[in-house]
Here is the input.
Amino acid sequence: MGEFELIRHYFQRPGANPPGVVLGVGDDCALLQPEAGQRLAISTDMLVEGRHFFPDVDPAALGHKALAVNLSDLAAMGAQPLGCTLALALPRADEAWLAGFSQGLFALAEAEACPLVGGDTTKGPLNLCITVFGQVPPGQELRRSGARAGDEVWVSGTVGDARLALEALLGETPLPPDVLARSRQRLERPTPRLALGLALRGIASAAADVSDGLCGDLGHILAASGVGAELELGALLASSALSADLRARPRPQLLRCALAGGDDYELIFTAPAAAREAVLQAARSADTPVSRLGRITTEADLRWRDESGQPLDLALASFDHFA
Ligand code: ADP
Ligand code: MG
Here is the structure.
């Protein structure tokens, strides 16, 4: 199968484009049309075999995840998807792999109205790079720099399960098959929180997505905003942010996975205390649970208190590719 046949067969879908896409796959460029007055939001994430995924991962799950991690960045900005491009290096034209990969990618692209509008295909070690384009009205984007002392800190969904699955798949911890199956779903098929990101426009003061771990990604918000935070372990333990599977793990593992795990693709965000009801309403409208973990402080530091109010010493850094 030649390059152009491959592109046509696996990456070009017939049918009408949504309003934001004037021209999709097939020409020298795609043409996107944001709604009048809106700004383009652009983000790129690359996935490399052996670094971000196992060589034998289900190709449909990989297609899903490659787009999901990018959509998660749009969600964290409060942006609405317009379309995406895919740059793909493949060692060979493996049709079963391409069929699975494109099925996983297109299923999420259609569900989240983010059509594939172009890309590049080349031979080489397996490497995937998706760029997403979204739109957001000026001033309504959820930047990392907007957290203020007194704001409250929230997280969506559940954190830690992806890391739990990774530890099991790396042979570091045995897990019962049903627990592994559930946590592996979180690792391989993360849910981008797009509806929540949109619902939090005008409510959240800052947001980021949890790709490198809750503490690390909150740290990015704190650094960008020039503030600190005081979080309550008791609030986390009492919240819905921990799955029953993670709660059943030994405490060091629970803390490591939940606080420094990564690959969760939840939103960590801040909002003024007066907006607490609005946050809960946004979460309901987006059908996404949220948990309140603590508050923003003026001292530039992230501190945790344990259940008895004592400072918790967590030598937990976020996952850093170059550490
Ligand atoms: P060019 O020579 O201008 O780089 P290509 O031959 O690489 O064009 O691509 C032809 C068309 O197919 C372009 O519209 C490009 O965006 C699209 N395309 C190539 N690879 C992919 C891919 N993996 N996914 C989606 N579209 C692709
Ligand atoms: Mg090209």
Q: What stands out?
A: Residues 7, 11, 25-28, 86, 88, 116, 118-121 surround adenosine-5'-diphosphate (ligand 1) (CB under 6 Å). Residues 144 and 276 are 19 Å apart (CA to CA).
